[in-house]
Amino acid sequence: VHLTMDDELLEEVPRIFEQAAERMRANTGLSLTNEQKLDLYGYYKQAKEGHCNVSKPGFFDFAGRAKWEAWNKLGDLSKELAMAQYISLVNELDPGWETKEISVGEVNKV
């Protein structure tokens, strides 16, 4: 899949990405599956650091391996497209998140 974005949208992606990441860091009351959490993690790491550049964790580090695999499977996906995919996933998991207020209780749980 080859996605393209115009220059104006490309300029907005990092700002929207940071807002979406902040929303996911807050306790939104969402019930996410492990797969959804790993997808968010992989896109976030790819967006922030680029392609996976760390060694695969040891066999008995199950959580570490799952996170590594979620990030590594994205290969050479650009940071910008990883941000866009992250935003798309947040939109799917929490429709209308941009207009929701984060309560003081949610912020305190972060």
Write the layout of secondary structure elements.
Blueprint (H helix, E strand, L loop, with lengths): L6 H19 L8 H16 L12 H11 L6 H15 L10 H5 L2
Query: Which class of secondary structure composition applies to the elements?
Result: mainly alpha
The proportion of residues in beta strands is under 5%
Terminal CA distance: 35 Å
| Helical percentage | 55-70%
List the helices and strands in order: HHHHH
The chain-level mean pLDDT equals 86
Stretches where pLDDT is under 50 for at least 5 consecutive residues are: 103-110
General description of the model:
- The chain is mainly alpha-helical and 110 residues long.
- 60% of the residues lie in helices and 0% in strands.
- It contains 5 helices and no strands.
- Helix 1 packs across helix 4 and helix 2 (34-49) packs antiparallel against helix 4.
- The longest helix has 19 residues, at 7-25.
- The radius of gyration is 15 Å and the shape is flat.
- Residues 103-110 have low confidence and may be disordered.
Short overview:
With 110 residues, this protein is mostly helical. It is 60% helix and 0% strand. Helix 1 packs across helix 4 (79-93), helix 2 (34-49) crosses helix 3 (62-72) and helix 2 packs antiparallel against helix 4 (79-93).
